[in-house]
């Protein structure tokens, strides 16, 4: 991989995949100065070619002289894609939090480029300093990928497969499960025709607070206060399944 | 209550309580131009008198000529405090999300002033536009309290006791339970000596996203993808109690 200092100018990248991760990373690599020389996706004809110069649908026919190949396909499909790919000289990475790096071992230079971010289609990322977790087959590849990640975010981490898996698991709680709590909160309000707007500043503050305060110390509410009357009344207000969840989470907070 | 337009200039307020809510609201009323003429707290002598002009420890001796009395004591103590208070002409409010307004009915003008915020001591609130939920004994008191709330935040809502209780329950999910998810995430990282810093941008983004996107549509991760392999592996990585929670939340997300 060749590139000028502090930007990814001159870096040639091929993206494999057409989902949220491919779309967002393509934009970020482009913003950092890299050239997306090719994009491989199932329906190349219908592609809008937002970033990539060319688009193909057969991974066997991809350009072999790119610096970096970024596989952004569902976890289960990564191994198959790697198998179908021709031998390439550039570095091949996948972007999964939980798939081991070893599925890419047929490539001389390989690694992982896992953006710790929850990408939603057509929704720009607000917080740009998200962490990028790197794993690499050699020290040189590690240096190259860390420089790549550094072109996109100031928070690049070099992790082992095991560490990345732990980070991924923690991210499920921090992102997916907390988002599920927001979804339940909205449901509760919806049923009484109360606007979700009422909770949005509180949700933002909840996130902002843990920037400075350990989440354990930031905990408030009836569970941590041991307010049994409110806990009991809340349970009666909820449907059976959600009431069970309420009881379990309150118990966990008190433990 | 008398005050100039758009600010609380001239409004005289007495605070009863010395916890997070009293401290934060005292600061906000002061910033909006109101005068905190007295503060009632258990240990008046040791008080730092940050905002209040005088501080006493016996609620029976509070000034009777204030415009507004804000009771910021634990939910269980509100009724007893109200009982001990002398008859006052001003409006008496409590700040609880779940205690009915009727505990204050001995006062001619009474209501609820519930700030939908999670206050932590010594931690300034980052998001200032948090919702304030108002309930009032008469139409006039409602107007007065809505103006008070408007001096502090642009998001003031006039709600019934029932609606406020629903909002409070939703806030437990949106704030306490999502914060608990952050605490578990930190625990998972701590065990592998990985820095919590790695997750902070993701947590911020998770909150920012629901400003524009319905949380149901914002959901990502192995549960919503139906990625059984990852779900199963994650469970094996967790302690029994947390694994159970992981399974329940994943199941709920899939439902």
In the CATH hierarchy, the architecture of the largest domain in chain A is 3-Layer(aba) Sandwich
**CATH topology tier name of the largest domain in chain A:** Rossmann fold
CATH superfamily descriptor of the largest domain in chain A: NAD(P)-binding Rossmann-like Domain
Task: Outline the low-pLDDT stretches of chain A.
Answer: 2-6
Mean pLDDT of chain A comes to 91
Order of helices and strands of chain A: EHEEEHEEEHEHHHHHH
| Structural domains of chain A: how many | 2
Q: How many angstroms separate the termini of chain A?
A: 51 Å
Number of strands of chain A: 8
At the first level of CATH, the class of the largest domain in chain A is Alpha Beta
Strands side by side in the biggest sheet of chain A: 3-2-1-4-5-6-7-8
How would you describe the overall organization of this protein?
Two copies of one chain form a homodimer. With 255 residues, the first copy, chain A, is an alpha/beta fold. The first copy, chain A, has two domains: 12-159, 3-Layer(aba) Sandwich (Rossmann fold), CATH 3.40.50.720; 166-254, N-(1-d-carboxylethyl)-l-norvaline Dehydrogenase, domain 2. The first copy, chain A, is 43% helix and 14% strand. The first copy, chain A, contains nine helices and eight strands. Chain A has helices spanning 20-31, 78-84, 139-152, 161-191, 200-212, 215-218, 222-225, 228-237, 240-254; strands spanning 12-16, 35-40, 55-56, 68-71, 91-94, 110-115, 132-136, 156-158. Chain A has an eight-stranded mixed sheet with strand order 3-2-1-4-5-6-7-8, with helices on both faces. In chain A, α3 links the parallel β7 and β8 (156-158). Chain A is elongated. Chain A starts with 11 loop residues before the first strand and ends with a helix. Chains A and B meet through α4, α5, α6, α7 and α8 of A and α4, α5, α6, α7 and α8 of B.
């Amino acid at each position: 991989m060749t590139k000028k200092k502090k930007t990814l100018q001159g870096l040639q990248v091929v993206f494999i995949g057409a989902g949220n991760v491919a779309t967002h990373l393509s934009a970020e690599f482009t913003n950092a100065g890299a050239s997306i020389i090719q994009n491989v996706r199932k329906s190349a004809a219908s592609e809008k070619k937002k970033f990539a110069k060319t688009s193909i649908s057969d991974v066997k026919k991809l350009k072999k002289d790119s610096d970096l190949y970024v596989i952004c396909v569902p976890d289960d499909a990564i191994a198959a894609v790697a198998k179908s790919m021709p031998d390439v000289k550039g570095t091949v990475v996948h972007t999964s939090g939980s798939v081991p790096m070893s599925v890419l071992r047929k490539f001389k230079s390989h690694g992982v480029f896992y953006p710790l971010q929850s990408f939603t289609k057509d929704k720009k990322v607000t917080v740009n300093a998200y962490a990028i977790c790197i794993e690499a087959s050699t020290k040189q590849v590690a240096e190259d990928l860390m420089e790549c990640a550094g072109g996109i975010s100031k928070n690049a981490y070099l992790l082992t497969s095991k560490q990345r898996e732990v980070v991924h698991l923690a991210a499920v709680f921090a992102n997916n499960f907390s988002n599920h709590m927001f979804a339940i909160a909205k449901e509760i309000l919806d049923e009484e025709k109360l606007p979700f707007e009422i909770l949005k500043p509180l949700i933002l503050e909840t996130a902002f607070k843990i920037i400075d305060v350990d989440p354990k110390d930031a905990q408030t509410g009836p569970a941590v206060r041991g307010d049994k009357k409110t806990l009991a009344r809340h349970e009666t207000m909820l449907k059976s399944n959600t009431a069970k969840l309420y009881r379990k989470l309150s118990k966990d907070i008190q433990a």
